[in-house]
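BUG: 3D viewer hangs when loading the predicted structure for this chain

Environment: internal workstation, default settings.
Expected: structure renders.
Actual: progress bar stalls at 90%.

Input used:
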Amino acid sequence: MAKRRSKYISWDKAHKAWVARFGGLKKQSSLKWKVEHWLEQEKAKKEAEGWDASELPHNQRIDAIKALDVLPKGHTLEEAVRFFADHLARTTRVLTIADAIAEFLEAKKDASDTHKRDLATRLNRWRAVLDVEAPARPVSSVTSSELATFIQQFRGQNYTNWRTVFSNFFGWCLKTGASPYNPATELEIGKRKTQRPVIMTVSTFSDLLSKAFAQRRADVLAWLTLGGLCGLRPFEALRIHWSAVQWETNEVRIEPEISKTKRARIVPIQPSGLKWLRISFEFAGCPSEQVMPIESTWSNRWRRWREKNHDPRWWVGKDDVLRHSYGTYRAAILRNSHNVAEEMGTSVQMVRARYDAVVSPSVARHWWSISPTKP
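Structure tokens produced before the viewer hung:
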């Protein structure tokens, strides 16, 4: 019956009604009555449910049923939705993209100058693209599809860096109430190719230490020693104080507030490193304050010193070459990725991918035997 009935019934979307078309149907009076009776039943059913409710897709009907199961008695779905919309409006700050970026960068004021410069450059470049289409747009309106469209122009590590910046920025927006969610979490994770970093040769490192020693440059000696013989990150070396050097136990203590991972760690100072660090400490007048000058001052000093004492072109893109050298030569001696990872404040996977089996122990022993000699 249902199959025969469907030949005479169709749904009129414009008028939201079932329409019966009988054509020359004369003899089949019983079928005509049954069709008209079914139409009356459907009409009564839809009027009881509400015509708009009857148009809801199946998945929305399921959502409504699930919502009713958790809704407290005495309340309606409309009340619940209105309450949520009001709560969202109250807890979400209305910030333009430009204002959100400015506040985010202000919140990062304690980060290194290099990190802050990278954040500002990338975010303002992205904002400039959006401002062409819709200036003064609220940051809460940015969608994951828009980010995906923008970021697809980048490849490899550059893509990963952009995704990280967006994740940090929108994570901050979510935390401060400027955005209801973090759209960067839906961006595809780029495939990261880990490459062996460039390291310094033993002869080059020895030559740099000898020149700094002959010139009685306490700052250069400390920089070379903390990076190449203690494995500190550049911004960790810039923030550390002489009080962090434990002369009695031959260790350097990295506090959580200056560490990239926000975890404390203790780095053992090797005998050669201890000698160079003591000389730097004595050249500086045995102070107790910060080991290095402020970042901007040191950046200029370090650049000028390299121009006079080494090929400045060699250093382009090698800001972490001292730390990478430490990891490579330390891994060759210890042959224990877990210990190297603990000393460097990184992961075991990173140590194995970057530093394991790069140089032989016989070569590494020369690195750790570089000691000061009288000029």
